[in-house]
Amino acid sequence: MPRRLLILGNSAAALAAAGAIRARGGGERITMVSREPCSAYSPVLTTYYLRGQIPASALYLCDAGSYRERDIECRFGVAAVALDTEAQTVLLDDGGRLSYDALLLATGARARRLEGLDAVVAAEICYLRTIDDARRIRERADGAGRVVILGGGLVSLQVASAVAAPGRQVTCVVASRQVLSQNIDAECAELIRAHIEGTTGIALHFGADVTQIVRANGGYRVCLDSGEELAADLLVAGKGVVPNIDYVDRRQIAVERGILVDDQLRTSAENVYAAGDLAQGRNRLTGRRELVPNWINACEQGRIAGANMAGAALSFAGSVAENITTLCGLPVASVGVTRPDGDNADVREVRYRDDERGVYRKLILRDDRLIGAVLLRDIGDVGVIRSAIVGGRLPQGSLQHVAAGPARFADALVRGRRGVA
Amino acid sequence: MTQMIVIDIGKCTGCGTCELMCSFRHHGEFNPRKARIHKTVFLYDELAVPVVCSQCEDAWCERICPAGAIAHTIEPTSGAAVLKVDEQICVGCKMCMLACPFGNIAVGAKGHAEKCDLCDGDPQCVKFCPRGALHFADSERGEGEKRRKLATALAASYKESE
Ligand SMILES: Cc1cc2nc3c(=O)[nH]c(=O)nc-3n(C[C@H](O)[C@H](O)[C@H](O)COP(=O)(O)OP(=O)(O)OC[C@H]3O[C@@H](n4cnc5c(N)ncnc54)[C@H](O)[C@@H]3O)c2cc1C
Question: What ipTM does this complex have?
């Protein structure tokens, strides 16, 4: 009997795991279970679909043939509802039960729902995570003259930029004092705000919390704690994500904010692994176990978890919090620790700013090791900088060169070594 | 037999012809900023290193592309393995730029990722290198040699200050 490997989820982490298992050629039986009935698609691309840049069909990463080729048994359109790590079984919402020799939890995360709202209104608020979410927003955006977006993070700003159109008023209500408060520093955020407001009609409200949303004139009235009120035809909220781990019994598996994993991506339960947006593993730069919900991390963790389920002993080097995007035409990248907390005595920042070209670049160091970077507009060397952050490299002296960019990173390093910088 | 671009670091003078020919081939203009090969000149070491996509077998960009737009293909005339960006599928999200540790892929003005595509089996950088520092050679011989040279150069450039 071949070993039975069960994968819950059908996205970045799950696909990478299945690929890694097959790459080892061990002939295991692979079953994938997914709540959504469709083949795997990329949530990352949903805003490009919203914008009308690509058709819905372009979101898919696989078709039925892709699973057949890899000899993967698909149970799509059913959700896991209870995991029993003692019996090594997973109960599904169609009543079925699957047993496993090794299990991967890769059910990702969902959009955090707004709380404390009238139930009717709450049910009408749109979120963006799944392909269905994207379709729903697109349908409702049709003919919506006023769109109010609750949130100022990456997803919120991408949605704002995607739905912005002549004749449509788009407003973001941001609870914090800046955009992208999870990703970048206030100075960079201010440059992004100025760019967005200066080049598009999108309006941003900061330090504003929603106290109430009521239906009014066929649309909604959004009441803010400042006393201000905004009229809307479409409401979209982007308030971060929460891991999909409702089927996990916390007495059986150690959970904090997500499922705790070690460097082999093993959970506290025997033969159970976890990868992707639900996994709380070691952050390479902070050393702490954190949720790092991004695509690259999900791919990498999935690959390692998959190989290990199939008998390898690979170690994960740790997650890197990072993101790269283009907001209303402006490229922005953040890598590693960009908002150092705690005792900052040993943290140093090297900043470069060129307002004429709209460039802002910041390097963050601790004990003279590069631990983070924020790059605006001039981002061509982001991969090289990332690799230096991950590798903990960088001599002193050359930092001004690197911060000033562009590209010639290696050049700067060597010049730095020679004491020129 | 598969061929790849092999770099002979000792011979490169940093003249930049490779960059110009690359940008001309792909963009019809001589603009090193649009090139997919880049030379780095280490003035104080009297060393110049051209850096171009090594068409990694297990490539970061390919692994993480959230659109599945990057894939290995075999270039028909030369039989070379080349990592190609499908411009129809790529949306220009830039995640590959984050992933490539060598900075050898970038999203260009047309809104999709651009990287070395070996010019359909006739790499212009190789063809026009006035010093013969670039070769399009068999991987058996080339790969090891190229890896070793590139690794040495990179190791040197990343060395901590002494
Ligand atoms: C609009 C948007 C833009 C984004 N942009 C970026 C970006 O630019 N860069 C970046 O790095 N990341 C981005 N992300 C984040 C990225 O999409 C996620 O980090 C990534 O998808 C996580 O993959 P995952 O495999 O952990 O799970 P998910 O993609 O969350 O998928 C979860 C899977 O599990 C299934 N599932 C859920 N619950 C159950 C259950 N109970 N039983 C069975 N199956 C279940 C789902 O159907 C799905 O197949 C973006 C996300 C969104 C929504």
Answer: 0.91
